[in-house]
Design goal:
By secondary structure, this protein is of the alpha/beta class. The protein has one domain: BirA Bifunctional Protein, domain 2. Helix content is 26%, strand content 26%. It is built from 5 helices and 11 strands, in the order E-H-E-E-E-E-E-H-E-E-E-E-E-H-H-H. Strands 1, 2, 6, 7, 8, 9, 10 and 11 form an 8-stranded mixed β-sheet that branches. The protein has a 3-stranded mixed β-sheet with strand order 4-3-5, with no helix packed on it. A hairpin with a 2-residue loop joins strand 7 and strand 8. Helix 2 packs across helix 4. It catalyses: octanoyl-[ACP] + L-lysyl-[protein] = N(6)-octanoyl-L-lysyl-[protein] + holo-[ACP] + H(+). Its EC number is 2.3.1.181. Its main location: cytoplasm. Pathway: Protein modification; protein lipoylation via endogenous pathway; protein N(6)-(lipoyl)lysine from octanoyl-[acyl-carrier-protein]: step 1/2.
């Protein structure tokens, strides 16, 4: 599988404007969909920005009036900024591969990469992304947000992996529309985090490996605290 990999803004203090990267994605997407360019994986670090997917509710947006870029991907609202590795796989999907299968492969690539760092993560039922499991003190925490768009059988947008991200940015929003779980980073969990370049060099081969489209065994789900239903929800479900 021929893949072009580009690193943008991964050096210390080097940040890529979100709109600039989105415009670049669209140009590359058109070329990949036309067959005039190989599949391409962009690895970058954004200047601080909130982006909202198509399903974002007004109540989930920043509480302080911070500006938000509305985008054409799936999912809800999230934050991008320094210390976060953003990866956009712009890939032509085989006819037999749908968006859900693609998302599961992107999740699995990160789970395997994080295991290489000594961090156990996994999926959570009915929730997209990569998670650190709950324990007796904390609910599960999302370490990677994923939002994908498929047009002309070609993907765009992608994943945002928190390495050493300032997590206080997420306090301004309801991250991914999920109120009963937290957000975390590699640094928060391990006390250390690889550089953006090192993380990209670990993750991209895992993504390419799973883009062979061969069957794979997914990681088991992590432990999950389900929110206690409200009285109204319990009454409704009993009817």
């Amino acid at each position: 599988m021929a893949v072009v990999v580009e690193h943008l803004g991964l050096a210390e203090g080097e940040l890529i404007d979100y709109q600039e990267a989105w415009d670049l994605q669209r140009r590359i997407h058109a070329e990949v969909a036309d067959g005039s360019r190989p599949d391409t994986i962009l690895c970058l670090q954004h200047a601080p920005v909130f982006t909202a997917g198509r399903r974002t509710l007004d109540s989930e947006r920043p509480t302080d009036g911070s500006p938000v870029v509305d985008v054409d991907r799936g999912g809800k609202i999230t934050f991008h900024g320094p210390g976060q590795l953003v990866v956009y796989p712009i890939v032509r999907l085989p006819q037999s591969v749908g968006v859900v299968d693609f998302v599961r492969r992107v999740e699995e690539a990160q789970i395997r990469m994080l295991a290489d760092l000594g961090l156990t993560t996994g999926p959570v039922q009915r929730r997209t992304g990569v998670w650190v499991g709950s324990d007796e003190h904390r609910a599960e925490r999302k370490i990677t947000a994923i939002g994908i768009r498929v047009a002309r059988k070609t993907t765009m947008h992608g994943l945002a992996l928190n390495l050493s991200t300032d997590l206080s940015w997420f306090d301004r929003i309801v991250p991914c529309g999920i109120e009963d779980a937290g957000v975390t980073s590699v640094e928060q969990e391990l006390g250390r985090a690889p550089s953006l370049v090192a993380a990209a060099e670990m993750l991209v081969p895992r993504i390419i490996e799973l883009m062979s489209w061969e069957p794979f065994t997914a990681a088991p789900e992590v432990s999950h605290w389900y929110a206690t239903p409200t009285l109204a929800q319990q009454v409704q479900s009993a009817r």
